[in-house]
Amino acid sequence: MVNGLSVDVEDWFQVGAFENSIAREDWDSLEHRVEANTDRVLALFEAGGVKATFFTLGWVAERYPALIRRIAEAGHEVASHGWDHRRVFTMGPEQFRSDLAAARTVLEDAAGVAVTGYRAPSFSIDARTPWAHEVLADAGYAYSSSIAPIRHDHYGWADAPRGAHQPVCGSDLVELPITLARFLGREVTAGGGFFRLLPSGVTHRAVREANEVDRAAIFYFHPWEVDPGQPRVAGAPLKSKLRHYSRLGAMAGKLEKLIAGHRWGRIDQVAAEAVRRAR
Length: 279
Known about the structure:
Layout: E1 3-9, H1 34-48, E2 53-56, H2 58-63, H3 65-73, E3 77-80, H4 93-111, E4 117-118, H5 132-138, E5 143-144, E6 174-175, E7 180-183, E8 186-189, H6 192-197, H7 200-212, E9 218-221, H8 238-245, H9 251-261, E10 264-265, H10 267-278
Parallel strand pairs: 1-2, 1-9, 1-10, 2-3, 4-5, 5-6
Antiparallel strand pairs: 7-8
C-alpha cells in the first residue's frame, strides 16, 4: 500500500510554537533558511526514490517562486498550507476563503500546475470550524489533510474519524487525517516533533498497523527539522524550545530509514484512491 509522505513548507520563525515570541511583521528581517532546507529535503527524496506532497505557505511561494517550480519539476505535488500560517479557527468563513485564494494564486503561478490539496496550519480544522470543509469544497479542492484526531494543547479534534472520509455531503472532497501512533499508552501524531523525539520504531509500527487494516498512513514533517544550525529564539518558552530544537541533528537519518522502510507517494494519489474506494 502507498502511504502519504508530506512536507509542511514554512520557515523556522513561522511555527506555532513561536507565534507569541516572533511578530509577523518581523519575518522579513529574519534569516530565511526555508529555501536551502527544502532543497535538502528534495535531495533526500531523490536519493530515496520517492515523491511527496509539499504543503507550502503562500508567503514562502511569493518570495521563493523558483523553489516552488523546482518542487513541481521534480515530480512532487505542490499543495497549499494557507498564506501565512494563521490557524483556521482564528478566521471566519470569508477570511478563510480569501486566505485560500491568495495562497493558491501565488502557488499556481510559481509551480505552473493546479493546486488541489490543502493542509491547515497546525491541523487547525476542528470542532470550532464546521464550515471549513464546505469552503474547501466550494473552492474546488480535491482533498484536505488538516485534522489531527487527537487531544493536544496546540491542535486536535479527538472525535474526528481516524481514516479517510468525505465530510461534505454531495462533494468528492476527501479529508485525510494525520496518522496516529502510540507510545507508552498515549496517542501521538506520526510525524513532526514526535517523530524526532521518540524512537523510530513508534512511527514504523504506526505505518504498519495502518496498512494492516487497509489504510494508507499519512506522515508529515517540516524543512526546518533537518536544520540543526538554525537560529535560536532566546525569549521563547522553555516548552516551545524543547519541542522545536530537540534532536534536529537526528532527523535526516531517521527520515532516510523511514522512507526506505515503507512505500510512499504523493497525498493527491492517496486521496484519489480513497475517493475511488468510496464510490
